[in-house]
Design brief:
Length: about 425
């Protein structure tokens, strides 16, 4: 149990531009695990607020993405991941609209410690972009027509390391961004959405890392921020030039960074390894821009969540920590009782949703005191890997199931 973790640590998606809650364009929505969705349930069970439950072909760890009534998700199948699936479902009914079965370039034996369809897709108004840890990058329109493809193994020579790739795609208006971090050739690359050509490529130090790039704009400059074994680096999205960096980070580089105003929050599985970094500066800002480090709060699999001036970390052991955003001072901690939590927590208005490997979802009231609103389960639901939250729909993804939860019951599949 070490690498399926890849799953939820990764992706920063393309903004939909309209600020609506009809879209969830990538892992962690727009890269921060925030949703303004209306009518999401606080409680659910087999007989309550379960709209539909779909059995997926193959197995996968990616999160679902949503664009105006269509849900896209990926999976792989075969003892060596010989097949990969790109799947599209109707949001309202759960009916399958189309599936595309594609071959895989790199054949890797399936195991509990090796990623399986871990990278989450990115979707915009025209296309869905999918990347598999087998090195295959595919782009489809919303009706399932393949537009272009690219086999990335030619760029990095195949995965070197025991756990596979897990970092998902990030995007801006024109390009998608991919971070390849393993024991071989490692880099950050911008690829044209239109035709798949390389816009720029910047080499980075080799080393295993699974966090997803974060695309942000700060002081008028668009940047893509990547965490790797060497630290955190911000690159200019226009040309891939490194703008600033922080080195000497502790712990396994798995959680993805989270931006909150002028602070970048970094999670770590080691005490005093998590931190807040003040945005800005040039070159090595390690000595000048680290604002705080929490004493005990850790975040191993899941990425930190910032909401209403507080930061939530979930440890490997399933302990939730809440710290003050400005100071890093701990407000509360609570062992949740659901085992490990690999999925990143979700903020919806005044609520925090935390998803466990035992299939439980803990719903808390956001705030400086711990207040549990509900603990929810569905029969035989295993590890929750990914989520999406839009109006009237909370989507949960386990290895072989995709579930829609809604306050108003629709039709059960």
């Amino acid at each position: 149990m070490y690498v399926l973790f890849l799953l939820l640590l990764f992706i920063t998606p393309v903004p939909d531009g309209g600020g609506t809650t009809r879209t969830w364009p990538g892992f962690r929505g727009n890269g921060d695990s925030h949703s303004k969705a209306d009518n999401l349930p606080v409680e659910w069970s087999d007989n309550s607020n379960l709209a539909w439950d779909v059995r997926l072909p193959g197995y996968g760890q990616s999160s679902p993405v949503v664009w105006k009534g269509r849900v896209f998700i990926t999976a792989v199948d075969g003892p060596n991941k010989e097949q990969a699936y790109v799947l599209c479902y109707d949001l309202r009914s759960g009916d399958e609209l189309w599936r595309r079965v594609v071959g895989t370039t790199e054949k890797v034996k399936v195991g509990n410690l090796v990623s399986q369809a871990a990278p989450t897709p990115v979707v915009d108004g025209k296309r869905v972009y999918v990347f598999f840890e087998t090195g295959d990058l595919y782009v489809f329109d919303h009706r399932g027509r393949r537009l272009w493809e690219r086999q990335m193994t030619s760029d990095y020579g195949g995965v070197k390391g025991p756990h596979g790739l897990g970092s998902s795609l990030a995007a801006n208006r024109d390009n998608i961004f991919i971070a390849i971090s393993h024991l071989g050739t490692s880099f950050v690359m911008a690829i044209s959405k239109r035709d798949g050509r390389t816009v720029w490529r910047t080499e980075r130090k080799s080393g295993m890392a699974w966090g997803t790039p974060l695309v942000i704009r700060h002081e008028g400059r668009e940047q893509v921020i990547v965490r790797g074994g060497e630290g955190v680096i911000s690159y200019d999205t226009a040309d891939g030039k490194a703008l600033w960096w922080v080195t000497g980070l502790k712990g396994a580089p798995m959680p993805s960074p989270t931006l909150a105003g002028d602070l970048l929050i970094i999670g770590s599985d080691q005490k005093e390894g998590s931190m807040a970094i003040r945005m800005g500066g040039s070159g090595d800002v390690t000595a000048t821009h680290i604002v705080w480090r929490p004493t005990d709060a850790t975040s191993y699999f899941s990425s930190p969540l910032v909401h209403h001036g507080l930061v939530y970390f979930i440890s490997k052991a399933g302990i939730a920590y809440c710290v003050d955003l400005k100071t890093g001072r701990e407000q509360w901690r609570q062992r949740l009782g659901g085992g490990e939590c690999w999925a990143s927590p979700l903020a919806v208005r005044d609520r925090i949703y935390i998803f466990s490997n035992e299939g439980k979802t803990f719903v808390l009231r956001a705030g400086r005191q711990y207040e549990q609103l509900a603990v929810n389960t569905i029969s035989e639901l295993e590890r929750i890997y990914g989520v999406a939250a839009i109006d009237d729909a909370l989507l949960l993804r386990s290895g072989r199931r995709l579930i829609r939860l809604s306050e108003t019951r629709l039709d059960r599949r």
